[in-house]
Amino acid sequence: xxxxxxxxxxxxxxxxxxxxxxxxxxxxxxxxxxxxxxxxxxxxxxxxxxxxxxxxxxxxxxxxxxxxxxxxxxxxxxxxxxxxxxxxxxxxxxxxxxxxxxxxxxxxxxxxxxxxxxxxxxxxxxxxxxxxxxxxxxxxxxxxxxxxxxxxxxxxxxxxxxxxxxxxxxxxxxxxxxxxxxxxxxxxxxxxxxxxxxxxxxxxxxxxxxxxxxxxxxx
Length: 219
Hints:
By secondary structure, the chain is α/β, with parallel strands linked by helices. The protein has 6 helices and 11 strands.
């Protein structure tokens, strides 16, 4: 069974800090050292700009972003602009896909499947949408997926809306999609789970989709 180290970070983390941590694990895997790792965390409020970001998809001025406590960061993941912050569960799988299946499309669909299974645990029907990545409930997006892969080592990953700050989403056009909304577990459920509970369910769903021998560390 393939080992995976799940690391749950207890406090919101700066985006740049997590980029460096991902890079360190990636470098070790590329050298045949260490093990596949999945980080689970909240970020300090940040708007990230992927490789296909268009400036007009950021709606707020830099002054307004500063007032809201939201920083800006460039990202080497695929996709357009997105937001990360408290109340959103971010999952960064650093995996060697040669241990499963070296395929970009397969990997994207598997990450979506992780979210779909997690939502089903709460009685929600998550679905894919043709032409887009991520997972939707009805016409509203609940989870974004943006990845990078080099030599079949993955980084970046999933952002699931648990109970994010609604005002912050008004500063962008999420993923550049103008005609659909954003939703969250808090909006969809009468008794929404805590972020810690969702982390536990995320790990269970991940292990179903990526069979592995998992062990968990909390930091």
